């Protein structure tokens, strides 16, 4: 079980959105690299980054702060947002990103995602962001006709390292993870699933430790860490207890 602290980048700053709405952004740190270093010092062992501006633009926008983060930490980093072609994938992996996350591309161009997973084994994840049961794209600004399960099944046996499943209705609102939908997805596919959206407290981490969640690879935590609702030491101790 991996607990991923999240850094969402908007105009070079570390922010959290509510339900993916760029107009509802709260700035938590003006120095993302310092924030990343703090997470590493707290004991986290894998970092999750999203280039929010890039997700809307369809190309990387916050490349400079991402590169500074890579210089500031030694832990592995996964990155999503605006990665829409094989050149971008290769560029980020060469710069030190451990795993790229492809979201909109998974809907618009599944062949590209499969090619990336084949060329870079274990280093490509798919981001499935669900709104009212349907997968959202273009920085969550548009909703497709696909369900999360339908899209995930496209990539079975394609070599995708993980599926990151986000419940948009809960994201940034501290309502708790949607364990039922996330576990149901994990049980329906062979690809490891990471829970995202709404992690609010230590109770959510405890829920991740339950036997029913055994198929989950981990969960992403954002706002709860930033506003102090989730104690990093206690959360990581729980996770360590499971893996001990």
UniProtKB/TrEMBL annotation:
Its main location: cytoplasm. Keywords: Amino-acid biosynthesis, Cytoplasm, Histidine biosynthesis, Isomerase. The active site is at 8 (proton acceptor), 129 (proton donor). It comes from the Bacteria. Belongs to the HisA/HisF family. Pathway: Amino-acid biosynthesis; L-histidine biosynthesis; L-histidine from 5-phospho-alpha-D-ribose 1-diphosphate: step 4/9. The keyword Amino-acid biosynthesis applies. This is 1-(5-phosphoribosyl)-5-[(5-phosphoribosylamino)methylideneamino] imidazole-4-carboxamide isomerase. It catalyses: 1-(5-phospho-beta-D-ribosyl)-5-[(5-phospho-beta-D-ribosylamino)methylideneamino]imidazole-4-carboxamide = 5-[(5-phospho-1-deoxy-D-ribulos-1-ylimino)methylamino]-1-(5-phospho-beta-D-ribosyl)imidazole-4-carboxamide. Its EC number is 5.3.1.16. One of its GO terms (biological process) is L-tryptophan biosynthetic process. GO terms for molecular function: 1-(5-phosphoribosyl)-5-[(5-phosphoribosylamino)methylideneamino]imidazole-4-carboxamide isomerase activity. NCBIfam families: 1-(5-phosphoribosyl)-5-[(5-phosphoribosylamino)methylideneamino]imidazole-4-carboxamide isomerase (TIGR00007), PRK13585.1 (NF010112). It is found in: Cytoplasm. The lineage of its organism: Bacteria, Pseudomonadati, Pseudomonadota, Alphaproteobacteria, Hyphomicrobiales. GO terms for cellular component: cytoplasm. Pfam families: His_biosynth.
């Amino acid at each position: 079980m991996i607990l991923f602290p999240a850094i969402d980048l908007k105009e070079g700053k570390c922010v959290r959105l509510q339900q993916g709405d760029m107009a509802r952004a709260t700035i938590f740190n003006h120095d993302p690299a310092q924030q990343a270093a703090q997470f590493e010092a707290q004991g986290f062992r894998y970092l999750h980054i999203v280039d929010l501006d890039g997700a809307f633009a369809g190309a990387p926008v916050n490349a400079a702060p991402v590169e500074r983060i890579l210089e500031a930490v030694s832990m592995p980093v996964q990155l999503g947002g605006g990665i829409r072609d094989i050149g971008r994938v290769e560029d980020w992996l060469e710069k030190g990103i451990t795993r790229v996350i492809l979201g909109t591309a998974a809907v618009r161009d599944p062949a590209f995602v499969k090619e990336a997973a084949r060329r870079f084994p274990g280093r490509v994840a798919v981001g499935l962001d669900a709104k009212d049961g349907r997968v959202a794209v273009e920085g969550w600004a548009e909703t497709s006709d696909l369900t999360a399960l339908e899209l995930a099944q496209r990539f079975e046996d394609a070599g995708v390292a993980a599926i990151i499943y986000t419940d948009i209705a809960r994201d940034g609102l501290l309502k708790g993870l949607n364990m039922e939908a996330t576990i149901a997805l994990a049980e329906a596919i062979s690809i490891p699933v990471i829970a995202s959206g709404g992690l609010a407290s230590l109770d959510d981490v405890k829920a991740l430790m339950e036997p029913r969640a055994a198929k989950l690879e981990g969960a992403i935590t954002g706002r709860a860490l930033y506003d102090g609702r989730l104690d990093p030491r206690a959360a990581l101790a729980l996770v360590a207890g499971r893996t001990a």
